[in-house]
Amino acid sequence: ARATRLTNQLLSHAMVIHRAENQAMMPFDLKKLVGDLITDLLRDTSLRRINLTLDDESVDNEQAIVFGDQISINEALKNLVENAIRHGPETNEITLRLTQVNENHISVEVEDEGPGIPEHQREEVLERFKSLNMHANGSGLGLAIVKEVADAHNADLQLREGKNGGLLARMVFEAQRIAAILMLALFGLTSTPLTDKAHADPSVLEIWGATDKSAFQPVIDA
Predict the structure, then answer these.
(1) For residue 191, what pLDDT is reported?
(2) What DSSP designation does 104 have?
(3) What are the DSSP calls for 166-209, one per residue?
(4) How open is the CA angle 70-205-22, to the nearest 5 degrees?
(5) Looking at the DSSP assignment, which residues form a beta bridge with residue 98?
């Protein structure tokens, strides 16, 4: 189980770096992404003893538009939730919270009732292969992936103590106004298209994997 998780996390880490380098970004609704994520998590029967809560009522969809890569941000939030599950108690309570920080910024938080992270170790756990509990099937990559995603989006990543003593991980993104996005797109007020480099060349298929090419060649040929 530990080897499987490590392999998945290594691939996930490589994926978010690759997507950041290729600037696969466009405007999207962060509120919808968070809502879809918690819906998927609630389908996982292994989480029945964990209370998952979504708190997003203070933010409407127009305020929740951000410019970024949905896949990478979704991966970061999944890692935060998985960390909360892995390091928290069996009857953990985990809250995903969307908050309007100010007119130009929106935050998404994951808060749990686990043991938390001591303040003097919060910078250390953001490094690759660093974990406070490597015996909990951890890879030491979860928070490193979150940091990579935050850095790629110029987002402010904060690790704090939650109200119940657990960890509160917070990512603050710059919000985009729908009207401003439409104006830029319609009137060409920016030198770079909003979806520039967001899509690969449709005539080229890139396959990234850990399998030997000789073993996978029949699939490519087919």
Answers:
(1) 44
(2) T
(3) SEEEEEEEEB--HHHHHHHHHHT-SSS-TTTT-S--TT------
(4) 40
(5) 108
